[in-house]
Amino acid sequence: MPKKQRKKGQPKESDPKANETRDRPPNSKYEWAKSIVIAIALFLFLRTFLVQTFVITSGSMEGTLLVGDMLVVNRAAIGSRVPATNLRIPGYSSPKFGDVLVFDPPHEPTLKLIKRLIGMPGDTLEMRDRVLYRNGQLLDEPYVVHTSEPDQPDRLMEWQRGNPPEPWFACRGCPILTADTDPRTYAPTRDNWGPLVIPEDHYFMLGDNREHSLDSRYWGLLEGWRLEGRAVFTYFSYNKDSLRPFPALREIRWARIVRGVH
């Protein structure tokens, strides 16, 4: 039977199968799965390279940060480390003296710490009777908290003499002490140490609660690639040590919410 010819100008007959495919509703399970994958990928990108959150769980920065403070950390400011590598994506600024930074400490690979950046590469640091000197100048540190605990030495501080007691110490063999300091008689303590010269691409971190902070005095210098980000502000805070039920609801520190970290 000859095929029916369509007259010129006559609209083309629609294909019923094509219409059925076009009118079929999208697969809802597929759309949900795609949305979830995109959301997870976006979250991981933001958290890895732009911002992250951090919760204060110890009192080493008391005076500036309290247990129960929840912080926003800017990872893009000083660059972000590519996960599982020592490579960094450059940031739009560099670490500065006095920054409050989150970092990956050398002695605990699964731990994140937050301290104040006190020693920059090339700086000479010294502490005498709890008073800190940087490049020979006495530092005014209004953020520091002191207690009445007596001074004491610690075996971990042997790294300052060039004898790191553990294998994870950074910059092993680096000339840390100044040339006029004899490592054989040098005996650092928590409140009296130095002068120390900070080598290239290394940093010296201290907690503001000086007598209750495990910091660079003990676990040594921090390599630049370990820096994670700059603390920006607290987005929430509550008295985590409260004995009242539901402290996150009943012990909110309203004055610390959206408060800058300095």
Description:
- The protein has 262 residues and is α+β, with helices and mostly antiparallel strands.
- It has one domain (51-260): Umud Fragment, subunit A (Ribbon).
- The protein is 15% helix and 24% strand.
- The chain has helices at residues 16-23, 28-49, 216-219, 247-250, and strands spanning 51-55, 69-74, 80-81, 88-89, 100-103, 113-119, 124-128, 131-134, 137-138, 193-197, 202-206, 222-223, 227-237, 259-260.
- The strands form three sheets. Strands 1, 2, 5, 6, 11, 12, 13 and 14 form an eight-stranded antiparallel beta sheet that branches. It has a four-stranded antiparallel beta sheet with strand order 9-8-7-10, with no helix packed on it.
- The longest helix is centred in the first third of the chain and has 22 residues, at 28-49.
- The N and C termini lie far apart (89 Å).
Q: How would the blueprint of this fold be written?
A:
Elements: H1 16-23, H2 28-49, E1 51-55, E2 69-74, E3 80-81, E4 88-89, E5 100-103, E6 113-119, E7 124-128, E8 131-134, E9 137-138, E10 193-197, E11 202-206, H3 216-219, E12 222-223, E13 227-237, H4 247-250, E14 259-260
Antiparallel strand pairs: 1-2, 2-13, 3-4, 5-6, 5-13, 6-11, 7-8, 7-10, 8-9, 11-12, 13-14
